[in-house]
Design a protein that fits this description.
Blueprint lengths: L5 H17 L5 H16 L4 H20 L4 H35 L14 H17 L8 H9 L12 H9 L5 H34 L5 H32 L17 H7 L2 H15 L6 H19 L3 H27 L2 H20 L3 H11 L10 H20 L3 H12 L4 H18 L11
Helix pairs in contact: 1-2, 2-6, 3-4, 3-5, 3-6, 4-5, 6-7, 8-9, 8-16, 8-18, 9-14, 9-15, 9-16, 11-12, 12-13, 13-14, 14-15
Length: 461
């Protein structure tokens, strides 16, 4: 079940909302927990038990760490928790990657494991790990109520595609949270905005990449159209999901932190990664980069720390070499910026630093979205006019004409300009604001009914 589906919008969510708000406060968590487990069960029936097992393992480790605080046993328990979490993630997400590479390396034939990737396992595993680590470091106390911890790990708004919510962010709200009409209204508006970004922009842009790959009239222009289309698609797809998750959280009284902050207006890759998938970036910073020593060490160790973090960032996204190269590549660029490039970028006109950043992002997402490194290299050659193809083709010009308004609108919506304009308009026509959101929801619903293309990209991770 996905947020941008008729089943979720007009059956699951209304029923949950009614049950939640008519239920006394002390039972609201039970309603949300049952709804969250049912939500996951609809998408992954057999792997619901894996989710429950993850909850049980981390609950038990949290209690044991708390009980043996400031002893060697506590350290042993946190190490045990991290190993078990990573082992579960490794088995279900990376088994066939390791089998494939071992088979290739030693020229032996090892059969692949017939195992499907559980939806959201990367997200809820990282949430669970952050909880036990924070209990160990003393940032939070262990949650004694297993149902409250289960709700934290399985809460359906952010369960399958983030953002990665820290336990310390919502620990108080798990026990007691306020509900207000203003929060409810904000949550609904935020959800509708996210749904519109996903359905009206991301889904429509998503076809461009496929058109560019499978065209019988390849051209430099078509390759660029596909790359730009996917770069915009993944932003509106993922940030749209985050908006919906944040909106749903607010409806139920939870305050999730922001996950995106207009990353495409960045003037460096360093700035881009402060604005893109913020919850993942801060997770790796706090639980890997800083424990490794961060930048408070020798220059060699510092560089090693950066590359370890970015190797893991790439590998987190997928069990394939193109994700690893994508992550390490960003690590190389970030090191270059920290050593000398940022000083240069600050001196040149901002338009050039912005172009530099966007070019790296676009080429980076070509690597990210390709099925293999060979395909990525071939695609980038096409973009750089290194293949025997024309600059333009009749088909490319046709799609440029068909998508030019949508691409222009998407580029504009990836900046803060529309939000600023919308706020000014809302101040003048405050009474008409609900009509605008109802209209957006109606149009989005029409697109959902009419379209068969409605995936969430980050469900793959």
């Amino acid at each position: 079940m996905v947020f941008s589906s008729i089943t979720f919008l007009y059956f699951f969510l209304p029923i949950v909302l009614v049950l939640y708000f008519i239920t006394p406060h002390k039972f609201k968590n039970y309603i949300l927990l049952l709804a969250s487990l049912f939500f996951y069960f609809c998408g992954e029936p057999k792997y619901t038990f894996l989710l429950i097992a993850s909850i049980a393992v981390n609950y038990l480790h949290g209690i044991l760490i708390e009980r043996h605080r400031d002893t060697k046993a506590a350290k042993g328990f946190v190490v045990s928790a991290v190993i078990i979490n990573l082992l579960l993630l490794g088995i279900f997400k990376y088994s066939n990657f390791f089998i494939s590479n071992i088979s290739h390396m030693f020229n032996i034939d090892i059969k692949f494991v017939e195992i499907a990737l559980p939806i959201g396992i990367s997200f809820y595993t990282f949430q669970a790990m952050s909880y036990v680590i924070d209990v160990y470091t003393g940032e939070v106390k262990a949650q004694k109520n297993v149902l409250n911890l289960a709700l934290y790990i399985s809460l359906f708004p952010q369960l399958v595609a983030g953002p990665i919510v820290r336990y310390k962010t919502i620990k108080d709200e798990l026990i007691k949270r306020d509900h207000s009409f203003d929060d409810f209204a904000y949550g609904v508006k935020r959800f509708v905005i996210g749904l519109s970004k996903k359905v009206l922009l991301a889904n429509s842009l998503g076809e461009l990449w496929k058109f560019a790959i499978y065209t019988e009239q390849p051209s430099v222009l078509f390759y660029w159209l596909g790359a730009i289309g996917f770069t915009l698609q993944i932003y509106f797809d993922f940030s749209g999901y985050s908006d919906m998750a944040i909106g749903l959280g607010r409806i139920f009284g939870f305050h999730f932190l922001e996950n995106f902050n207009y990353p495409y207006i960045s003037k460096s890759i360093t700035e881009f990664w402060r604005r893109w998938h913020i919850s993942l970036g801060t997770w790796f910073r706090d639980y890997l980069y800083i424990p490794l020593g961060g930048n408070r060490t020798t220059k060699f160790k510092w560089l090693c720390n950066i590359f370890i973090v970015w190797f893991c960032t790439g590998f987190w996204h997928g069990a394939a070499w193109n994700f690893i190269i994508w992550g390490v590549g960003f690590g190389v660029i970030l090191v270059a910026e920290k050593l000398f490039l940022l000083k240069f970028l600050e001196k040149i006109p901002s338009v050039f630093s912005h172009i530099y950043t966007l070019m790296i992002i676009i080429f980076g997402f070509v690597i990210f979205n390709s099925s293999s490194i060979t395909d990525a290299i071939q695609y980038m050659k096409g973009m750089l006019n290194l293949l025997s193809i024309p600059i333009f083709s009749r088909e490319a010009l046709y799609y440029l004409g068909s998508y030019k308004i949508l691409i222009t609108l998407a580029i504009l919506c990836s900046t803060p300009i529309p939000l600023r304009v919308a706020r000014k308009i809302a101040q003048k026509i405050n009474n008409f604001e609900p009509i605008i959101y109802i209209a957006l929801l109606t149009v989005a619903t029409g697109f959902i009914i009419d379209s068969s293309f409605n995936p969430f990209i980050y469900f793959r991770f």
